[in-house]
Design goal:
- The termini are far apart.
- With 118 residues, the chain is mainly beta.
- Helix content is 0%, strand content 53%.
- The chain is globular, with a radius of gyration of 13 Å.
- It is built from no helices and 11 strands.
- The strands form 2 sheets. Strands 2, 4, 5, 6, 9, 10 and 11 form a 7-stranded mixed β-sheet that branches.
Length: 118
């Protein structure tokens, strides 16, 4: 089970930190990710992190502004979002999958809304 929270309203240039609490299993050899769906658009990949080593990957529009991290003791994943822009407005979702799976993300949390005002 994944639970995402931390969204809200922020002015452009501001920061927010999203959290995703994971439960129900151990996550060794899994990876976690954040996706987002902007109004009227499809859900897009934002960032991902491997549970064991903490290797990360980001989509280009957020590189240098967003940081994904995890706390294995708390079974949580975070998305620190800095220098937010109005185009970052979206519902953000956390997702999880076994690293043995190369396609698709079978586990999703409920979304948390991030609104960036100009």
């Amino acid at each position: 089970q994944l639970q995402a929270f931390g969204g809200g309203l922020v002015q452009a240039g501001g920061s927010l930190r999203l959290s995703c609490a994971a439960s129900g299993r151990t996550f060794t050899n899994w990876e976690m990710a954040w996706f987002r769906r902007a109004p009227g658009k499809e859900r897009d990949f934002v960032a991902r992190i491997t549970w064991n080593v903490g290797s990360t990957e980001y989509t280009d529009p957020v590189k240098g502004r967003f940081t994904i991290s995890r706390d294995t003791a708390k079974n949580s994943v975070y998305l620190q979002m800095n220098s937010l822009k109005p185009e970052d407005t979206a519902v953000y979702y956390c997702a999880a999958r076994s690293m043995a799976r190369s396609i698709g993300w079978p586990y999703w949390g409920q979304g948390t809304l991030v609104t960036v005002s100009s």
